[in-house]
Specification:
This protein is of the alpha+beta class. It has one domain. It is 38% helix and 23% strand. The chain is built from five helices and seven strands; from the N terminus they run αββααβαββββα. The strands form two sheets. It has a five-stranded mixed β-sheet. A hairpin with a 5-residue loop joins β4 and β5. α3 packs parallel to α5. The longest helix has 19 residues. It starts with 7 loop residues before the first helix and ends with a helix.
């Protein structure tokens, strides 16, 4: 069965959601739409190192507060957002595919990188129980590891900005 396409308004809302997160202080390692084959619905996947720092419950609480304060688009219900850590192997796989634009690196026997022809582009990929498409990617940033001090400072900024919006 073919993966259902996502409505353009959700792609637009996803970009607005990503912008809102960055403005609040949460810079995702990856943010993209995917299709959950088990639930048979589209989900918004957020890969962040805040996952390990504060846990998914605390992140979800802040995302709900931002949603209720109308800081994030109403088209994206917080129950639609799936959280992952950049430190999970699946989170790293998600980020790698989301950032690949459907193109993968290929090396010859001498470990020299070879370009792939345009027709070799991957249109979709199943990782776990979700289907991803390069055209559904909203943002990907390098997987640079942040220190605990930096994470703490950024988390405080994020929660302070959500508090201001919710007030």
């Amino acid at each position: 069965m073919a993966t259902p396409e996502i409505d353009e308004r959700f792609l637009t809302a996803g970009r607005e959601y990503g912008d809102a997160l960055v403005n609040l202080g949460l810079e995702p390692h990856a943010l993209f739409w995917a299709y959950d084959n088990g639930e048979q619905r589209h989900i918004l996947v957020l890969v962040t190192d805040f996952f390990d720092f504060k846990g998914p419950l605390e992140i979800s609480k802040q995302l709900f507060r931002a949603y209720n304060a109308s800081v994030t688009p109403k088209e994206i219900d917080p129950f639609t957002v799936r959280l992952h850590s950049i430190n999970q192997s699946i989170g790293e796989e998600y980020r790698n595919f989301a950032g690949s634009d459907g193109k993968f690196k290929v090396w010859d026997k001498n470990m020299v990188r070879k370009p792939l022809p345009e027709e070799a582009r991957v249109e979709s990929m199943n990782i776990g129980d979700i289907t991803m498409k390069p055209t559904w990617t909203i943002c990907v940033r390098p997987g640079k590891r942040r220190t605990g001090v930096d994470l703490s400072r950024r988390w405080e900024r994020f929660t302070r900005n959500v508090d201001r919006a919710a007030a």
